[in-house]
Specification:
The chain is an alpha/beta fold. It contains 16 helices and twelve strands. The two termini are 22 Å apart.
C-alpha cells in the first residue's frame, strides 16, 4: 500500500495531522479491498482547485474534491481536495476539519472506484450509503504514528493534606519526584491567591527540582504574574479562580477577560514562557484563545467526567473531540484535564491531537491505597490502552 500525500495548501493557516489522514486512508483502502494499490491525495488551496475545476469540469470557482482515475492497474488515481473549501464546509457543518477531510477522501475514493452520484438519484443514494458506512467504520481509527498524550501529575492535593495540619508533611516536592520516577512527563501545580494548598516556596523549590516540565496554573492577577516571571516555569496555564470554589469549576471566559489575558500573555512571551488557557470545549473560546496569543489550550474535561449517563458522556466526549481538532487545525497545541480518573482517561487519551493530560485528584486518591508510584503507573497504563 502506497499513499502519497502532497500538501500545497497554506501550512501557516492549516495545521494538519498528516499521519492521521494517511492512517485513515490506509484503513479505507483495506475496507475497500484496495490495499495493494497506490493512491495520491493532493491538498490544495481554493485558487489552485479553481484552475483544475475550470480545466477539467469547465466550471468556475473551486470545488471541495476532484478525483482522477489512474491509467495503470498499479495505481487507483489522484484525489484533489481544497483545504480552503473543506475548512469553510466544516465550519458550516460545525464539525472538525479532519473529520470533514476524511469524508472528502471517502468521497474521492468511491469516485475512483466507479461510484458516481451525478448519474441518477439511485446512484447518489447508493454512494451516500457507502460513504456513511465507511465513515462510521473508521471514526475511532487514529494515527498509527501518534504518540500517546504525556501524563502530567497535579500534586496540589499532596499540599492540601499538608495544610490540613499546618505542618511540613506530606511534601509536594518529594511527591513530584516520585511521580517523575514513576514515568510522569510533567508536574502541575496551581498557586492560588488564597494559598489553600501550594505555597510560593513550593513553586520555587519545584522549579529547582523538576526534571521534566513544570506547568504553573494561575489566575491572571498581578501578584501571581510577578512570581511566575521570577520562577519562569516551562509553561503557565491561565485558569479562572473563585475563592469559595472547592476546585476549578469551568473554563476561563477568554472573551470577557480579553484585555487582561492578552497583557499577561505578552509579558510571559517576553520572558520566554509559553501560555496555555484552560477553556471549555467551545469553538468561540478557542478562537479567542488564539486571538490573544496563547500557544496552547487545555480543554476542560469536567462535564465529560461528571456525566450521569452514557448518552450524556458520549455527547460531552464528542464536544471535546471536536474542540481538540478545531484548536489543532487553528494552530494551537492541545492539552486536556480536570476530573479525569481511571475510568474516563483512556477515551480522552485516544484523541489524536491531544499532547498532554493533566491529572491530579484521582491519582492522589488512588495513592492512599496503593502508593503514589503505583497510582502513577496505573494511570499511565490507562493512557497506553488508548494506543
Amino acid at each position: 500500500m502506497f499513499i502519497n500525500l502532497i500538501d500545497h495548501a497554506d501550512q501557516t493557516r492549516f495545521q494538519l495531522n498528516y499521519a492521521l489522514l494517511r492512517t485513515r486512508t490506509g484503513r479505507l483502502l483495506e475496507l475497500l479491498n484496495q490495499q495493494d494499490i497506490a493512491v495520491s491525495i493532493v491538498l490544495l488551496d481554493d485558487q489552485e482547485m479553481a484552475q483544475y475545476n475550470q480545466t477539467y469540469r469547465h466550471k468556475e470557482g473551486p470545488t471541495n474534491v476532484l478525483s482522477f482515475p489512474a491509467e495503470t492497474n498499479e495505481e487507483l488515481g489522484d484525489i484533489l481536495i481544497s483545504v480552503d473549501t473543506a475548512w469553510k464546509e466544516a465550519g458550516e457543518k460545525n464539525i472538525p476539519l479532519h473529520q470533514h477531510l476524511t469524508w472528502l477522501i471517502i468521497h474521492g475514493l468511491l469516485h475512483l472506484l466507479g461510484y458516481d452520484h451525478e448519474l441518477s438519484e439511485a446512484q447518489a443514494e447508493l454512494m451516500l450509503v457507502k460513504e456513511e458506512e465507511l465513515f462510521q467504520a473508521i471514526q475511532h481509527i487514529h494515527s498509527g504514528g501518534k504518540t500517546m498524550p504525556q501524563l502530567a501529575i497535579n500534586v496540589d492535593h499532596i499540599a492540601t493534606i499538608r495544610e490540613a495540619r499546618g505542618g511540613a508533611e506530606p511534601d509536594p516536592i518529594l511527591a513530584a519526584g516520585i511521580c517523575e520516577l514513576a514515568g510522569a512527563k510533567g508536574i502541575v501545580v496551581h498557586l492560588r491567591e488564597d494559598r489553600r494548598h501550594i505555597q510560593e516556596r513550593d513553586v520555587r523549590l519545584l522549579r529547582q527540582t523538576v526534571k521534566t516540565r513544570l506547568n504553573l496554573e494561575m489566575a491572571a492577577v498581578k501578584e501571581i504574574i510577578s512570581i511566575a516571571l521570577e520562577v519562569v516555569p516551562d509553561l503557565i496555564t491561565l485558569v479562572p479562580e473563585k475563592r469559595k470554589e472547592l476546585t476549578t469549576e469551568g473554563g476561563l471566559d477568554v472573551m470577557s477577560n480579553e484585555k487582561k489575558i492578552r497583557k499577561t500573555i505578552s509579558r510571559m512571551s517576553e520572558a520566554g514562557i509559553p501560555v496555555s488557557i484552560f477553556v471549555d470545549p467551545d469553538a468561540e473560546q478557542i478562537k479567542a484563545a488564539l486571538d490573544v496569543g496563547a500557544a496552547y489550550v487545555e480543554l476542560h474535561t469536567g462535564r465529560y467526567c461528571d456525566a450521569k449517563s452514557e448518552q450524556e458522556r458520549d455527547r460531552e466526549f464528542h464536544l471535546i473531540e471536536q474542540a481538540a481538532e478545531t484548536a489543532f487545525a487553528s494552530g494551537l497545541r492541545v492539552n486536556a484535564g480536570h476530573g479525569l480518573d481511571y475510568r474516563t482517561t483512556t477515551r480522552i487519551a485516544a484523541i489524536p491531537v491531544i499532547e498532554e493530560l493533566s491529572i491530579g485528584h484521582a491519582i492522589i486518591a488512588r495513592a492512599a491505597f496503593v502508593g503514589l508510584d503505583q497510582a502513577v503507573r496505573e494511570m499511565q497504563d490507562c493512557i497506553d490502552l488508548a494506543g
